[in-house]
Write a structure and sequence with these properties.
single chain; about 400 residues; alpha/beta; Anaerobic Ribonucleotide-triphosphate Reductase Large Chain; 9-stranded mixed sheet; two-stranded antiparallel sheet; about 15% strand; globular
Length: about 400
């Protein structure tokens, strides 16, 4: 297991020196390698003065320079929320063209059950525009659509601060725990017990260090997002852990059971949790998932269905460079409705790759990505009501109570 990030949540104008000292200490304090230290601010439309391109580029450069001075590797500027003027969405391509240290997001459904179909259309257009920021389509690594995502998650791009005093949280890279726990077991109950015990043991070590840091630097510890994030080797693959349960391959029938089984084990574990703390299935960050996607046996719809029983949504999905706005919007509508009806946080990090078609090889010179192929998406055109802009309040799924039937009937 590694620590993917120590994420500091703070206001844009927080005092730099104490934060820098904390971040420097955090990088070396834990009994695991810390891959990065990161900072997340409140949503940038709340503290940037205006969204014109010149101002956005200047503030992006200024914010990235501040992060570099603090010693953080990446900064999340937070989301353009539903309550913000949609003109702020046009700032996103400018931000990503200005700096490779800044992440930002766009909300398509909020945490109060509100879903905006027009915002889904607009975000789909932004995804297409961001795909051309760099020649290889890498820009969408820094962007995600958010549905029912509150502040406080330490994973990027979703991370943002609710405002107020600084806090910090931990994101772990721990898919190997699931794989080892399952491979060592002879039964499903034993596999679950192994994983719960492993999570609690490793989380306890993280918490001990985090609490000490919190006390020393007077920055509250917000919790751990124990989402079992993978790394693109087979020994650290969530897809491999799912298959170790007995699946012929991820994407086959039984995969939804496997996703739910592992997620339920995470929920059983006792640790101070934040963020998703679920199953993370980023296609390009997981060697087994990348191979199954390349073979065509794992689809976007498969991954979306698994999101109903786990997390985090659709992540690092390689898509055709000429994918239509309709197709992207349809995916975002599905993510938004699923998150809203189930009242669970979901994201969509979709990566159209310029010049590539479904089935073409995908290779990035990036340590956190595995080789794969572009995933196919059915390209039907949305019609009638789904082409309209509508702001909807969606009721969450309520648990039904079956009526007892009298034995006399």
């Amino acid at each position: 297991m590694d620590i993917r990030s120590v994420t500091l949540f703070c206001e844009a104008g927080a005092a730099d020196a104490p934060l820098a000292h904390f971040l420097q200490a955090a990088r070396h304090a834990f009994p695991y390698p810390v891959q990065s230290t990161r900072m997340a601010t409140p949503p940038f439309p709340d503290w940037w003065p205006q969204p014109d391109a010149t101002t956005v580029a200047h503030l992006a450069q200024q914010t990235a320079a501040r992060g570099q001075a603090l010693g953080v590797d990446y900064i999340s500027l937070g989301p353009v929320l539903l309550r913000h003027d949609p003109v702020w969405l046009n700032a996103l391509p400018v931000i990503f063209a200005t700096s490779d240290a800044l992440f930002a997001t766009a909300e398509i459904a909020d945490t109060s059950g509100n879903l905006d179909t027009g915002r889904c259309w607009h975000v789909a257009d932004i995804i297409r525009r961001v795909s051309t920021v760099s020649p290889n389509g890498f820009g969408n690594l820094y962007l995600a659509a958010l549905a029912n995502c509150p502040p406080g998650s330490p994973f990027f791009p979703v991370a943002y601060h609710q405002g107020g005093a600084p806090t910090f949280a931990i994101a772990v890279e721990s898919a190997d725990l699931a794989l080892d726990a399952i491979q060592a077991a002879k039964t499903l109950p034993e596999a679950r017990a192994n994983l719960v015990a492993a999570i609690e043991e490793e989380a306890g070590k993280v918490v001990n260090t985090a609490v000490s840091l919190a006390q020393e630097y007077n920055i509250p510890f917000h919790g751990i997002d124990f989402s079992l994030a993978p790394y693109p080797t087979d020994s650290k693959s969530l897809g491999g852990a799912m298959e170790a349960l007995g699946l012929p391959h991820v994407g086959a029938a039984g995969s939804l059971f496997a996703a739910g089984f592992i997620t339920e084990a995470i929920e059983r574990a006792n640790f101070p949790r934040c963020g998703f703390s679920g199953l993370m299935l980023p296609v390009l960050e997981d060697s087994v998932l990348a191979r199954r996607a390349a073979a065509g046996v794992l689809t976007v719809q498969d991954l979306l269905s698994y999101s109903a029983v786990c997390g985090v949504g659709l992540d690092t999905i390689p898509l055709p460079g000429d994918i239509s706005q309709d197709s992207l919007t349809a995916i975002l509508l599905d993510v938004a409705m699923l998150a809203t009806r189930l009242r669970k946080p979901l994201t969509a990090r979709l990566m159209p790759l310029p010049g590539l078609q479904a089935g073409d090889p995908v290779t990035f010179d990036f340590a956190y990505f595995a080789d794969s192929r572009v995933m196919a998406v059915r390209g039907e055109t949305l019609q009638k009501h789904l082409r309209q802009s509508a702001h909807l309040t969606i009721e969450h799924v309520r648990q039904s109570k079956s009526q007892a039937v009298s034995s006399d009937e």
